[in-house]
Amino acid sequence: MATSQNSALLPSQAKFELKPPPYPLNALEPHMSQATLEYHWGKHHKTYVENLNKQIVGTELQGLSLEDIVVVSYNKGDVLPSFNNAAQAWNHEFFWESMKPGGGGKPSGELLDLIEKDFGSFDQFVEEFKSAAATQFGSGWAWLAYKASEKDKKLEVIKSVNAVNPLVSDYFPLLTIDVWEHAYYLDFQNRRPDYISTFMEKLVSWEAVSARLEKAKVQAAK
Amino acid sequence: MALRSLALATRKTLTLGLNSTRLSQSRALQTFSLPDLPYDYGALEPAISGEIMQLHHQKHHQTYITNYNKALEQLHDAIQKGDSSTVAKLQSAIKFNGGGHINHSIFWQNLAPIREGGGEPPKGSLGWVIDTNFGSLESLIQNINAEGAALQGSGWVWLGLDKELKKLVIETTANQDPLVTKGPHLVPLLGIDVWEHAYYLQYKNVRPDYLKNIWKVINWKYASEVYEKESA
Questions:
Q1: What are the C-alpha distances in Å from B135 to residues A213, B99, B119, B168, B215?
Q2: Chain B residues close to A180, C-beta within 8 Å
Q3: Which helix (H) or strand (E) holds A50?
Q4: B-chain residues near A79 (CB < 8 A)
Q5: A124-176: per-residue pLDDT in tens?
Q6: Which of A145, A205, B141, B224 could be A166's S-S partner, Cβ–Cβ 3.0 to 4.6 Å?
Q7: Distance, first Cα to last Cα, chain B
Q8: Contact between chains at A139 and B153 (C-beta distance less than 8 A)
Q9: Interface of B with A in 162-201 (CB under 8 A)
Q10: Distance between CA atoms of residues B104 and B150, nearest Å
């Protein structure tokens, strides 16, 4: 994924930009409304980015990539003040890029093979992912992530609370769904399971997920 | 315990609705039902919209009750079977859904329409102890709102009475954790739901505006009653 890059400035000038989703704000209608994108991207995500920039000024975090700031400020669970804003800035950019107009359907190729190997079938993966998203109490995220260790390379479904993401546990995130209420309340109110189903059936960009898997495998081989 | 016919009598109270369902060889399992609101859904406008009140009560609170009852039935079975693994596994569902029922039941009583005293400052002993502990009501509100705004994710901000230390405290809890999880001597006087579902349709991302406006419909009479009872 192309992260929010710091432009070629001195570290003391470096700041993150609010990158727009790779589609117009009304492009996910009727499954995710323009109003939702306007608030979710235009207010929530924007605020995380702005507050992160304010927080890192003059600190040793300024000049690092967003991913590095997330991992460093996670601090093995004893989070530093900038973790929440950094992780949420990262998570939301990753989320917009996990969706596309006309999304949904099934993955193919190597990604599908790996899903079938690690979950039994695509349908079983979908069940597990939907269940994780539905049972994350309160605010958080559900993920498909890739773990490469010496012994094994496999896919896992993970759920996380508030701003936490799998980067901090050395996973390569491949797909996410935001299950904070602000992500679905305007369109679905309390009906989180309906939002999750709509996400899987109409919004997921399997191309993005496959591209991330490719990158993850290359990085894991290093 | 007297035998009851299977045409169950439902007993609703203003605080917690209690049902007695099926008899088994051991004690009947008490389950719960949605308490009625003591005011119409639209009665707290414009501070909190009728749309939010209806969803919050009929959907969110009801779902906590439904899932709490389900978890209690499963727990009941597991206890009878001596299935410790299931007993342990159910704890988080019980805390979450039971806590949701407890917290929302308190919340509906923490609110009142303006014409029924909503927003009227506390008098009597609670008003006095707020001034003593916090300097003024405004200062208390400022503190509660700061804590509520700063809470990450989902949770509640509370004004509580520490019965042991005999003083008022401001506390936050995550998700649906009841106040007592922060200290066994803590009694909730006032809780404000800062889950996004409590304000999103009306206030969107601007939680501080919700916190500013909710004081217009806070029912200090209820908080005073609880304070007087618990500090006696």
A1: 58, 32, 19, 12, 18
A2: 153, 196
A3: helix A46-56
A4: none
A5: 999 999 999 999 999 999 999 999 887 888 999 999 999 999 999 999 999 99
A6: A145
A7: 34
A8: yes
A9: 174-176, 195-197, 200-201
A10: 21
